[in-house]
Design a protein that fits this description.
alpha/beta, Rossmann fold, seven-stranded parallel β-sheet, 9 helices, binds nicotinamide-adenine-dinucleotide
């Protein structure tokens, strides 16, 4: 039987209670890693991962809480002697045009998406620096690469995550630490449904789906596949990059000539 590709590795995943973070935690456990994770909301599925992958542990905590994350990392290193992977998937949707967005809403999104990412990586780096290896994987967005109507604080936070990640790659590369961001297109997760469940959004949801050249939204497991690549040795020479996983959303503007050409 083929050895599991992440056997002996230890991963820390934020936002592990739902969607992309949960799928990353599950995939890493499937690949043999010990997974520690956190989320502000408890998740019923955590127990299954904890029994599948002994040593794995999930806690309720906030990515804005640095001491809680430092404590989780310290306990993990005490128990397992290392930390190899961090995935920062905790995040929230939000936005509104600049003249109208409440200041508190701007701050909420920046705090969780950008400052939270910074704090999680800050907690994870010390053991990686000591062992001279590690893979930092931040979850940004295609909305961190280009504008969206009404995106404002969300896009600014995700653009910040993309550049923060490049800087981490620059600062820690000589210590053997790689850092890359994943930029998902629109992925059917609870966060996605919280934005699009409103009937008023139906027509916009269809238009957005149509811009994914594969003609569908993504699945969180497809993002976990990308995170697995960045966590594994297959990406040993990849750092400072954004891995865009968007079903072709950013490939170009689609007006529908494919129909005229008999391609749909
Ligand atoms: N779903 C998409 O279409 C999409 C597209 C691009 C980027 N993303 C990004 O992917 C990441 C994961 O999103 P998802 O779609 O899986 O959403 P999700 O809502 O399913 O999962 C996000 C998780 O983060 C947790 N979380 C929120 N605030 C937190 C905090 N302060 N501390 C700890 N945990 C917190 C939530 O409880 C939730 O479990 C987010 O950063 C999101 O911005 C999602």
């Amino acid at each position: 039987m083929q050895a599991k590709r992440l056997s002996g590795r230890v991963a820390f995943v934020t936002g592990a209670g739902s969607g992309i973070g949960y799928s990353c935690a599950q995939r890493f456990a499937d690949e043999g890693a010990v997974v520690v994770g956190l989320d502000v909301n408890e998740c019923d599925e955590w127990e299954a991962i904890e029994s599948q992958s002994p040593g794995s542990r999930f806690v309720v905590a906030d990515v804005c809480d640095l001491p809680a994350q430092e404590a989780l990392v310290a306990e993990t290193v005490d128990a397992h002697g290392r930390l190899d992977i961090v995935v920062t998937a905790a995040g929230v949707a939000g936005g509104g045009p600049v003249h109208a967005i409440p200041i508190e809403e701007w701050d909420r999104v920046q705090n969780i998406n950008l400052r939270g990412t910074f704090l999680s990586v800050r907690a994870a780096l010390p053991p990686m620096m000591e062992q001279h290896s590690g893979s930092v994987i931040t979850v940004a967005s295609v909305e961190g690469l280009e504008g969206t109507e009404g995106g404002s604080t969300y896009n600014a936070s995700k653009g910040g995550v993309v550049l923060l990640t490049k800087n981490i790659a620059m600062d820690y590369g000589r210590l053997g630490i790689r850092a890359n961001s994943i930029c998902p297109g629109f992925i059917e997760t609870p966060l996605f449904h919280s934005v699009f469940s409103d009937k008023a959004f139906d027509k916009y949801r269809e238009r957005i789906r149509d811009q994914h050249k594969l003609g569908r939204f993504g699945r969180s497991e497809e993002l976990a596949g990308a995170a697995f690549f960045l966590a594994s040795d297959d990406s040993s020479f990849v750092t400072g990059q954004c891995l865009v996983v968007d079903g072709g959303f950013t490939a170009g503007h689609r007006v529908g000539f494919t129909e005229l050409m008999g391609l749909e």
